[in-house]
Amino acid sequence: MIIDLALNTGLRVQELCDLKVDDLHIDYGESALTVQHGKGNKKRLVKFGKKTKAHLKNYLSECRTKSEHVFYSSRGDQLTRSAIQKIFKKWAQKAGLSESYSIHSLRHTHATRLYKASGNNLRMVQKQLGHANIQTTTVYSDVADEDVENALDNMEES
């Protein structure tokens, strides 16, 4: 669930740690969560898709304890940044991913996928990631070589 939520929301590691069950909006057609204390102590609403919502509901129904946090240790304590990073590394290794990948890589992947899926809407990506300055978000608008090749092929066919 940690990997799914990170990949499909672009949350920062600390935002995953701090996420509480009360921050989730998954009833009555909602598919969102509230980041109470993002970078710069800013609050924001982060939306996600139907599959992530279904996975999250299933996770909560199967894994509930008295912890107010969505992700918690075996003692019911809030997971730390290093605990989440270790969980990611364990599963990344099992998946055969390079050791260079980190939990933060999922934020970058989310932003890049959202940018493409939104028809290159940089403002939408900025809002989803909680960037104060759109210049920070422009790193996700770099053009991939494959995109250039496809555009050139499409142009030549016209």
Structural notes for this entry:
By secondary structure, the chain is mostly helical. The protein has one domain (2-157): Intergrase catalytic core (hpI Integrase, Chain A), CATH 1.10.443. The chain contains 8 helices and 3 strands, in the order ααβββαααααα. The chain has helices at residues 2-9, 13-18, 50-62, 81-94, 103-117, 122-129, 134-137, 145-157; strands at residues 24-25, 32-35, 44-47. Strands 1-2-3 form a 3-stranded antiparallel sheet. Helix 5 (103-117) packs antiparallel against helix 6. The longest helix has 15 residues, at 103-117. It is globular, with a radius of gyration of 17 Å. The N and C termini lie far apart (44 Å).
Helix % is 40-55%
**Main sheet record:** 3 strands, antiparallel
Number of helices: 8
Low-confidence stretches: none
By helix and strand content, what is the structural category?
A: mainly alpha
Mean pLDDT: 90
- Under CATH, the homologous superfamily reads Intergrase catalytic core
Q: Provide the number of structural domains.
A: 1
CATH architecture: Orthogonal Bundle
Cα-to-Cα separation, first versus last residue: 44 Å
Please give the CATH class: Mainly Alpha
Shape assignment: globular
- How many β-strands, per DSSP? 3
Radius of gyration computed on alpha carbons: 17 Å
H and E order: HHEEEHHHHHH
CATH fold naming = hpI Integrase, Chain A
